[in-house]
Write a structure and sequence with these properties.
- The chain has 181 residues and is an alpha+beta fold.
- It has two domains: 86 residues; 80 residues, 2-Layer Sandwich (Gyrase A, domain 2).
- Strand 3 and strand 4 form a beta hairpin.
- The termini are far apart.
Length: 181
């Protein structure tokens, strides 16, 4: 009786195929779920990155807008200042009087050994120069330089108003000059 008939062989083969198919579906669904979770995590990570970059750019743009606003105010003030300076420049150019920058440059060259304490220029062209010096020889050379022909283009008269010896040594002086108009 070696030849036995197995009536359940067909149904066992179907069950094995079905179990194999179920295992494949189960493994596939797990892999699909894993892929979906990775994709969702990547999406949320990228979304978080974009939000932080958007916040950073918004903050930078706000800072730059504030800086631009402050620079606009400064620019407005600068334009107003330039207009006022040009008006003052026109006013002083229309005034008859000595050329102030040239006079200041000239005094700067002449007064290297003298300590200038006061330099006042009146609207009528009268200039008062008060200062201190170490000895009278310096004053003598200064007065000679003021009376030279190059100086005659600036001053019509040069007068030594006072010369006082100080207790600590040295001298204080006042010179009155009349500028050519």
């Amino acid at each position: 009786m070696k030849n036995e008939i197995d009536f359940l062989k067909g149904s066992r083969g179907e069950k094995e195929k079905r179990l194999k198919l179920l295992r494949m579906v189960k493994t596939g669904s797990i892999l699909f779920l894993l892929f979906y979770c990775l994709l969702a995590a990547a999406f949320f990570s990228y979304n978080f990155y974009l939000q932080t970059q958007a916040q950073k750019i918004t903050k930078e743009s706000t800072l730059k807008k504030n800086k631009i606003e402050s620079l606009k105010e400064i620019e407005t003030l600068q334009i107003a200042l330039k207009q006022r300076l040009s008006t003052l420049d026109k006013f002083f150019a229309a005034q008859k009087g000595p050329n102030f920058p040239t006079l200041l440059d000239y005094f700067d060259q002449l007064t290297q050994e003298i300590i200038v304490r006061e330099l006042s220029i009146g609207s009528d062209g009268k200039i008062t120069l008060a200062g201190e010096l170490s000895d009278t020889f310096v004053l003598e050379s200064f007065l000679e330089r003021l009376n030279q022909p190059e100086t005659s283009k600036f001053f019509s008269t040069v007068t030594l108003s006072s010369l006082d010896k100080k207790e600590t040594g040295g001298y204080s002086f006042i010179i009155l000059l009349e500028a050519k108009i």
